[in-house]
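Please, why this fold?
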Amino acid sequence: MIAKAVSTSDAILMTLAGIAYGAPKDIGRYIEEAEPTASDWQLDWLPSVTDTPPNFAFAAHNTSDGTRVVSIRGTYPNPLSSAYWEDGRQDSPFGTMVSWPGNPEAKISAGTATGFENLKMLANGNGITLQAYLATVPDESPVFVTGHSLGGTLAPVLALWFTDLFPGKSISVATYAGLTPGNSSFAELFGPGTALSGRVRRVYNKLDTVPYGWDNVYATHEFYQPEPQGGAVVSALLLATVARLKLGGYDYTAIGDPIPLDGEVQPPSVSCDLVAYVLENLHQHMPDTYLSLLGAPPLPFSILLGTVVSPRKAADPANTQKALGLSPIFVDKA
């Protein structure tokens, strides 16, 4: 019998989701440094990677109650890396959808399918994959699968695979800013009467445009009030995307119980409306923004403008801002 779902706080789960963006060699240290995880959590499984892989995950262990968390990284935040561009392709909703094994009507996007296969192949230095790792976890130990952005898109997919492999385990999902991975038939695999019914939480910032993809894209067309507005360019792109999704019959459907967070629009920091709109999009999507909305402290490192991961204490924030030409909303205070 599967145990009842237990509660692990969003502060902890989002912190672990954010830590996945850090350098793999430093993941264990980040878990020890982050306030929500410092006292009871430790690194449990880490894949062996030489270069930055297009998809990455790690597992952590609560030493007090035995809970495990599998945390999946979102889109790699450095456009100078090939992983950034591969992850970007995985974010796309277009292309030939892939049927879920044993259920041909349940389909996920081609990009999601690629990311899922990449995660399955990750292995630590001893050749232990996520599947082999989870096989060692006692059935009575709760397992959470979490991720931010692309990691949030992949989290329910990986969790569904886990429940198929290990029907006796207690598996739950918490996604942050995730996109819709598949169609309505795929979403039904998480509905009433299934192993994951009531065990998937979809947490999103109401001002973050990303989690509106790909089932509710046009709902973002009047973001942000009173400014910055995306204008005609953004409206045209949104309409074109909606039309292509409709004509393609993709039928993307959100998964899990929605948990909306009330974001706040930041004053524009540049005069160009379109640039200000893009910057606001980035701000609303950042892991630290989600942590702030959840009442949690920031990550032990900074993701500047969504492209640079740096230690918080490595440099004075004002100097970093000046060097990179960043808006103040993207520079974390040490």
Q: What stands out?
A: Confidence is low (pLDDT under 50) at residues 1-6, 314-334. The chain has one domain: 10-330.
